[in-house]
Amino acid sequence: MSSPRVDVDGVSVSPDHYINGERIASSRTFEDRSPLDWTWKLADVARASSVEADLAVSAAEATFPAWAALSIEERGAYLDRLAELIDRDVEQIAHVECLDMAMLEESLKLRGIARGARNFRACAELARNYEPRRWSSNGTANTVLRMPAGPTVVITPWNAPFMLSTWKCAPALAAGNTVILKPAEWSPLSCSMLMDLVDEAEFPPGIFNVVQGFGNEVGAALVGDPRVRRISFTGSPETGRSIGQAAAKNLVPFTAELGGKGPFIVFADADLDAAAEKAAVMYDDGGQVCLAGTRLLVEASIRDTFVERFEVAAKRHVLGDSRESETTISPLIHPEHLARVDGFVKRAVVNGDTVVFGGERLKRNGLWYEPTLIEPKSNDSEIVQREVFGPVLTLQSFADETEAVELANSTAYGLSAIIYTSSEARAERLGALLRAGTIWVNCFLVRDLTAPFGGTGISGIGREGGDYALDFYSDLKTLQIKEGTTRG
């Protein structure tokens, strides 16, 4: 039995799960509040347990054979229809996600939600265009074929929930898998809206399911189910280790993106104005971006000049309502996360690190934290070595390329890195030496959906994007036919 839909600032949203093509309520709910004003309750959302997890996996298992048997063209048609519906509803989805997790609404309209449609189209097209590897050896003709792997569990974080969910679910569906999506409990509403569009696109029941709730309840039940054949997760290293253990118990391939502590390296030959402006962008979305370059590493000879320009750029930020066009910095997602970020800064001060500017939360109903820059007393400082996931950057200087690389590679993370230099040769040298899954030179967040994405170290395992994702969501097999075998 389903619950009544709720009105979220003029947009109708279901608070229930979507399992086997139906909306299903739970006996328990959890509150979903807006970071823009924590007194604003958006919805009481259905809270799943192992019961709903079993229902979702059972539905995905039952419908998998028929979905897997469809041609790539047939599956692609469903994904294309879903992309069209996302394009149609970009503004509504962006508005609800803005209220739910506070990312800038204009940014969501232009990039975040629209990227969801691109994810489905791109994966459908990649699946259609796949050309199996073929070669001859030892008197046989060899062909590598993809087989759909089976029911897939996708667990996504609270930042950019719609985009990241589509980024993971699109290749799983294109590969022929059925999907159970569990969005983060701090921002579940846009994923519920996605299920309305799945229903409107007339996906067969059980192909694409959503269950809402807490990781230690429904999440644990999902990843521990032996019927699940793929797991994809984005979140913290601690949770990633736990999910990895569950996946290993059932010998299930597992991919995880687990955050970052990226270096933002600025050399003396760089365009310092451009570098300072881009460094200030690291405060966007309240710093709640895993790919952000949060460790500013600046060549010593330009340290003072760069900091002066960076501070000017940072002070142009406007902390405000994420629905308003002039706002550039959104609030943090939840009071617990605000306290976590503030705790990092307070411990840094006690540790003897220097707060260059910022370092305070704003006294509002929302959850804003000032853009903050900290100069650590040591590279071993906690503020350097651990992911804060807020509007807090650190500043360190280096003497030469060797020291820049040493500092850049000195944390346990390895998700991304940013380099500003006018020298292509230097960019290529450092690009080969830096330990990171993605490296941008004189730019940031430029994404090609066919490129591999993922991290090294505790930033994660596996790769997503393009054929790398489609291979992950498939079982590969080699067909060998002895040469001279008669056709017919």
By DSSP (H or I, 4+ residues per run), the number of helices equals 15
Quickly give the CATH architecture of the largest domain.
3-Layer(aba) Sandwich
Biggest β-sheet description: 7 strands, mixed
* First-residue to last-residue Cα separation: 54 Å
What percent strand? 15-25%
**Helix/strand class:** alpha/beta
Count of the domains: 2
Give start-end ranges of low-pLDDT stretches. Answer: none
CATH topology of the largest domain, what is it called? Aldehyde Dehydrogenase, Chain A, domain 1
Total count of strands: 22
Helix content bin? 25-40%
CATH class of the largest domain: Alpha Beta
Backbone shape: globular
The largest beta-sheet arranges its strands as 16-17-18-15-14-19-20
- Radius of gyration equals 23 Å
Give me the secondary-structure topology:
Blueprint: E1 6-8, E2 11-13, E3 17-19, E4 22-24, E5 29-34, E6 37-46, H1 50-69, H2 72-88, H3 90-101, H4 105-129, E7 134-137, E8 140-148, E9 152-155, H5 161-174, E10 179-182, H6 189-200, E11 208-210, H7 215-223, E12 230-234, H8 237-249, E13 254-257, E14 262-266, H9 272-281, E15 293-299, H10 303-315, H11 335-351, E16 354-357, E17 372-375, H12 382-385, E18 392-398, H13 401-408, E19 416-420, H14 424-433, E20 438-441, E21 460-461, H15 466-472, E22 474-482
Parallel strand pairs: 9-10, 9-12, 10-11, 12-13, 14-15, 14-19, 15-18, 17-18, 19-20
Antiparallel strand pairs: 1-2, 3-4, 5-6, 7-8, 8-22, 13-21, 16-17
Helix pairs in contact: 1-7, 2-4, 3-4, 3-6, 4-5, 9-10
